[in-house]
Amino acid sequence: MKKIKRLFLVSMTTMMILFFISNQSYASIELLKNIQTASGEVSISSGGCEISNTFGEPIASTKELFTSSHSVLSGYLSIILTSGLSIDHITSTNTITTSIPPQLWGVRQTQPVLAVLTDEAATESISSNTVITELYDYTGAQINSTIAVNYNMIDSTNLEFKPAEWKKGSLYSAYFSTGITDINNEPLEKPQTFYFSVILDTSNTSTVVLINDKTRITLKESPSSNDYFVVISTIVKSDDIDEANSKLLVSNSLIKEPVKYLKITPYNMDGNEITSYPFTGQSDKYPVTIKTDYEDNDNNGLLDGLFPLAKASNLSLWKLDKTKNRWVKLPYYDIDTSNKELSARGNEFTIYAMFPKVATDVSDVIAYPVPFRPNAGNPNRYGSWADGIRFANCPGIGTIKLYTIAGDLVRKIDIESNIDANSEVKWNLKNDSGNIVASGVYIWEVVSGDNRKTGKLMVIK
User: Fold this and answer.
1) 3-state DSSP assignment of residue 313
2) Which of 45-59, 152-166, 269-283, 320-334 is the most confident on average?
């Protein structure tokens, strides 16, 4: 939102410039500069003061606006607009920032964190309206403890803060409240929270936490002999990934676009990527443990927002083989449907993807209504031509075939292209030629993957 920062009163004849701060009264108007002009230029200057294309509302007064050696009876009341105060971002030496989630990685123990403001801040409003909290320690344990830090305004828009030392491997938050004001006493537009993590210790098993996502990476071995940090990103797209997705075999019944990507990248103290990390395997053959969540908000066992439908219990985690641009399934993974989490073990820093497998279970498929009597006058019991015969609890892929009692194929329906949000597929009582079928008994067959189920239905027109 744009706010009035200064008001200018500009005389039409003598071009006198005056201003006052927006939260003060007109009585406090102060003369800044008196620029004399006889020709009425649109753009004039005198000394360090300049007016160009002045805008505003014409004003007039029946008496002098204030008592001084100068008098202004009419002119233009003009304004300068400014954006409201906010924290643009935080940063520190040799760190990496991710946008999704907004998180700063790799703060050194003794380095301050710098908050960059969009406007001049009132220094006295900073310390009492900023809260620094240690959220998690290096083991991934939740701490939620407020810590004391020292604040230092480097200049009017750059604020440094730090304790004696940040704890290695810990994740912190910096909360800035609306009690922080600019020099005109205008508050921060809204409360803001930023997150940052500190470098890891090579001597400890460390757990890295992604704050806006239930993702944790536990490292039983260090990728470096010196202190380092690891960055996790959830938004990853590249030509390599597109190529790997295209290579997935349809026979795997995998949905070719994963529900989540995780890019895990190690960096040294100087903020340079570590590209060689020969794990010894002494402590564990798979020293990287990945735990991340999935969405099933309605608790129906199906992944939210996916089409075709996929069961959460069929999720698996794959890693990108960058030498061949293909996905490789991790051999060790576990799905916790109670906490809606998937965990897996790997042995490298790379891009991981959580792939769902299309639901192929056909055991619960039913056809209704049976019998189908659209002209019986009771659509709730016998159905209607508009609703047709429906197959409920269908898998995400596969086919539905309908046969006469003699075994002749009447209709073949592709499930994936016809299934609705309720896992149902409609048959409109037409054969493959587009004609309404005759009354009689029909056999239906549902096939999905290696699964098959059959049943009977009756049509009475």
Assistant:
1) helix
2) 152-166
> pLDDT tens digits, residue range 285-327?
778 899 999 999 989 888 888 777 788 888 989 999 888 888 8
Residues with Cβ within 8 Å of 333's Cβ and at least 6 positions away in sequence, in order, are 316, 317, 342, 343, 344, 345
Residue 23 has pLDDT above 90, yes or no: no
- Stretch(es) of the chain classified as CATH 2.60.40.3080: 366-459
CB neighbours of residue 100 within 10 Å:
10
3-state secondary structure of 288: strand
CATH number of this structure's domain 208-355, picked from the four choices 1.10.3470, 2.60.220, 2.60.40, 1.10.10: 2.60.220
What CATH architecture does domain 87-199 belong to?
Sandwich (2.60)
Residue ranges of the chain that CATH labels 2.60.40.1220: 87-199
In what side-by-side order are the strands of the sheet with 171-176?
Answer: 96-98, 103-107, 192-198, 171-176, 130-136, 142-147
pTM attached to this predicted model? 0.67
Residues in Cβ contact with 76 at an 8 Å cutoff, skipping those fewer than 6 apart: 9, 10, 12, 54, 55, 56, 57, 58, 59
Q: In whole angstroms, how far apart are CA 148 and each of 34, 126, 160, 171, 174?
A: 50, 13, 13, 15, 12
Topology (CATH) of 366-459:
Immunoglobulin-like (2.60.40)
Could you give the residue range(s) of every CATH 2.60.220 domain in the chain? 208-355
Nearest to 369 by CA among 388, 386, 352, 355: 388
Tens-place pLDDT, residues 128-156 = 999 999 999 999 999 999 999 999 999 88
* 330 CB burial (10 A radius; 0-12, 13-18, 19+): middle
